[in-house]
């Protein structure tokens, strides 16, 4: 019970200092963007020259973006859930910054997963949309992203909404396994998993390689954008604090003169 | 890219590119706005306490 402060701070506690975080993230940032663009160029380039699928025809090309978007919208919520634990359990000062910064990015990728899926579904299923378990659960995820965005921006004081947002993220995490296993638990129009399966990926390398590269590229792009958005949020809070300070000083100009 | 599905494929890629570029632009412009606001405040002599102590006293570490 006696050792309140650990002798050597861990990796995450070093990052708890926003100034330190800004310094480190500034160095990492350009590399992340560079690697993301490289992987995307390779993945999408291979995707363009990939052969047509015997069932899907040329629409298989939509899969090289649809599948990464769908993976990402679940991964981003998972990243936010870890951050939410950071807010509630470890009281990490950057945890709620992470949640707030990730939410709009997650919403965009979820919307794109729904949209590209719909565009693929029209020629392949003959319908833009069905309320099957997979599509509905992802739609619910999208609504949760929107709710979270509203909640993280509802109050001026960022600390006040942090706890509520963290609870919403953790409660919403229930939906992630539901999305993942919806195609196994229910009879869906959406096909079951074909990459992450016990017996290995069920597709030839001509499709698997561009898919994995593009997934890697979009994942790196998410982390790069997330990092920039977190830096923005830290700077925004500094600007707000300093503006308040400036306003206080303007109200009591004589305080320093009197001292 | 002239098959029967070209319009579907191009619109899927087009909307995705538009949305992601828009997102990146939004985050990039936000970054510029915050940096400018901070520089503006500093130019008016309003600094964070830690930034001020950096200039007057040597760091404790």
TrEMBL record, chain A:
Q: Write out the GO MF terms.
A: heme binding; heme transmembrane transporter activity
The Cytochrome c assembly protein domain covers 40-190
The parts of the chain that form a coiled coil are none
Question: Where found, per UniProt?
Answer: Cell inner membrane; Membrane
Query: Which cellular component, as a GO term, is one annotated location?
Result: plasma membrane
**Role description:** Required for the export of heme to the periplasm for the biogenesis of c-type cytochromes.
NCBIfam families from the xrefs? ccmC
Instruction: Give the protein's recorded name.
Output: Heme exporter protein C
Source species: Fulvimarina manganoxydans
Automatic annotation (TrEMBL), chain B:
User: How does the record classify its membrane topology?
Assistant: Single-pass membrane protein
Question: What's the short name of a Pfam family annotated to this entry?
Answer: CcmD
The compartments listed are:
Cell inner membrane
Annotated GO CC locations: plasma membrane
Out of the domains of life, which is the source? Bacteria
Could you list the residue ranges that cross the membrane? Answer: 6-29
Q: Which UniProt keywords apply?
A: Cell inner membrane, Cell membrane, Cytochrome c-type biogenesis, Membrane, Transmembrane, Transmembrane helix, Transport
Q: What name has this protein been given in UniProt?
A: Heme exporter protein D
Q: What is the lineage of its organism?
A: Bacteria, Pseudomonadati, Pseudomonadota, Alphaproteobacteria, Hyphomicrobiales
């Amino acid at each position: 019970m006696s050792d309140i402060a650990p002798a050597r701070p861990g990796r995450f506690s070093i990052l708890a200092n926003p100034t330190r975080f800004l310094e480190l993230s500034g160095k990492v940032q350009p590399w992340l963007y560079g690697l993301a663009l490289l992987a995307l160029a390779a993945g999408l380039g291979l995707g363009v020259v990939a052969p047509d699928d015997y069932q899907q025809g040329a629409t298989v090309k939509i899969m090289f973006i649809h599948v990464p978007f769908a993976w990402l919208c679940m991964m981003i919520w998972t990243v936010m859930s870890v951050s939410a634990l950071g807010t509630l359990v470890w009281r990490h000062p950057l945890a709620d910054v992470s949640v707030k910064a990730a939410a709009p990015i997650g919403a965009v990728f979820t919307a794109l997963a729904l949209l590209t899926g719909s565009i693929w579904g029209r020629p392949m299923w003959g319908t833009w949309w069905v309320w099957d378990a997979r599509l509905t659960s992802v739609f619910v995820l999208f609504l949760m992203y929107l709710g979270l965005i509203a909640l993280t921006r509802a109050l001026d004081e960022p600390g006040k909404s942090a706890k509520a947002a963290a609870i919403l993220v953790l409660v919403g995490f229930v939906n992630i396994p539901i999305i993942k296993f919806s195609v196994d638990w229910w009879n869906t129009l959406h096909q079951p998993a074909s990459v992450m399966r016990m017996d290995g990926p069920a597709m030839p390398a001509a499709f698997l390689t561009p898919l994995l590269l593009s997934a890697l590229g979009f994942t790196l792009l998410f982390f790069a954008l997330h990092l920039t958005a977190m830096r923005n949020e830290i700077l925004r809070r500094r600007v707000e604090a300093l503006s308040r300070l400036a306003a206080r000083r303007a109200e009591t100009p004589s305080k320093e003169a009197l001292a | 890219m002239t098959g029967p599905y070209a319009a579907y494929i191009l619109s899927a890629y087009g909307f995705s590119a538009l949305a992601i570029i828009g997102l990146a632009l939004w985050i990039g412009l936000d970054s510029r706005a915050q940096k400018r606001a901070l520089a503006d405040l500093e130019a008016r002599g309003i600094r964070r306490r830690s930034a001020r102590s950096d200039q007057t006293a040597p760091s404790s570490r």
